[in-house]
Amino acid sequence: MKNIYIIDQQHLINNNSELENTCKKIATISKGWNTNIQLFIDHALNPIKESPELLNLFSTYPNLKNIFQINFSTVEQIPNNSNVLMNFYNFYGVPIEFYKKLIEKNCTIIFDYIWEANINFYIKPIEWLFNEIGDLSKFCILHSGSQITDKSSYNKLKNRTGLKIIDFMFFRYREINEGIKFSKNIDSTQIFNLETIKHKFLFLNNVPKIHRVLMLKKIHENNLLKNNIISARFKLQNSIYSGVFKTIQDAERKIFKETREKICLKDFSKILPIFIEYDLEGNFSDRFINPEWIYSTALQVVGETFYFKKDQGFNKYSYYQTFCTEKSYKPFYTCRPAVILSCPNHLKELKRQGFETWGDYIDESYDTELDPVKRLDMCFESINNFDKTIYKDKKFLEILKHNHEHFNNYELASKNIESDFERIFK
């Protein structure tokens, strides 16, 4: 029997309702594990022990054992040789004495999670911890990525500090709860009905990353904006997203640096931002898709987080890394095919996870193209050549149904997560 102690030091849980939802996710995803889970909360709640909903959770999920108020002296309640799962954000909010005490108790401290584009940011606290404690062999970081082709920088960090870094498909596991909840709102009588499909594709954009801007520009130049459902919730000049583009000229410079192409964005920038009707009425969630948008579009265009080599954390410009976020899973739980703007071998990674892609119906040769400019051109051609009549093909519909069922397979996902955790927890 394993013991996992989950410590929330990020102030994400502000009331009993949020705590109940957190407990449900933790307990549900670990249902059937031979594991005891105890949750520590780092600020006062009105009294959590008296909440009928929470008390009911303990009877519903027997592996969820208890909830404690944590004030860092509570560390004494954590038995020796335990697994302690913590959020890496607000790293410095935990006193160094707390870490030292866990080391004395021979506990393993697991930080959930770091994705590689931010690893440089996290080197500083890791170095601080190393300087204060010394050997970090009792510390583990769950790295949310896959298919890292060059691990030399990670190996240097691990060899110097003793820190363990384990690849962990965080988004695949996090999204299953939201995806299943969303799937319940899908009308099965409409999702495969060719008559409801009025537009070729859906392309949603929130942050102005270079590859998204370039694809939107291609779409605009080919007069595809009006006949499809597209959003671009940003401006290029004085972007509301700090650190992305300060001016149009800054955007042009950054695009040239990545593509070696001189592009004028002045005319294109005049059409920004692009909003979909009803898009912003109480909706600011990047997990949200209006079901009507899905029913009325045949294809989803996905602008992933990583596209260029520079999007990686270590060894920028030297290699690609596949990184699947919630964006890649939306087509699966909404029963749609997709063209995914991402690094090479992205579709290959999704296949490794058990999903099927659409190579018999969509040209997916872009997935192996290393040149980012050519890859974007190939993605556009795949979008432009897409034919919605493939919805008449039974084999194609079977692929959509398989992906939907595979994503929503709680039993399989839980089994896979437990297998991953076996590599981490004692």
Structure write-up:
With 426 residues, the protein is an alpha/beta fold. It folds into 2 domains: 2-173 and 413-422, Rossmann fold (3-Layer(aba) Sandwich); 174-411. The chain has 16 helices and 13 strands. The chain has helices at residues 16-29, 52-60, 96-104, 119-133, 152-161, 170-183, 188-191, 210-221, 248-259, 266-269, 291-295, 326-333, 346-352, 372-384, 394-407, 410-422; strands at 2-8, 35-41, 64-69, 83-86, 108-114, 139-143, 146-148, 164-167, 199-203, 229-230, 297-303, 321-322, 338-341. The strands form 3 sheets. It has a 7-stranded parallel beta sheet with strand order 3-2-1-4-5-6-8, sandwiched between helices. Strands 10-9-11-13 form a 4-stranded parallel beta sheet, with helices on both faces. α6 (170-183) runs parallel beside α12 (326-333). The chain is globular and about 65 Å long. The model is unreliable at 43-47 (pLDDT under 50).
Brief overview:
The chain has 426 residues and is an alpha/beta fold. The chain has helices spanning 16-29, 52-60, 96-104, 119-133, 152-161, 170-183, 188-191, 210-221, 248-259, 266-269, 291-295, 326-333, 346-352, 372-384, 394-407, 410-422; strands spanning 2-8, 35-41, 64-69, 83-86, 108-114, 139-143, 146-148, 164-167, 199-203, 229-230, 297-303, 321-322, 338-341.
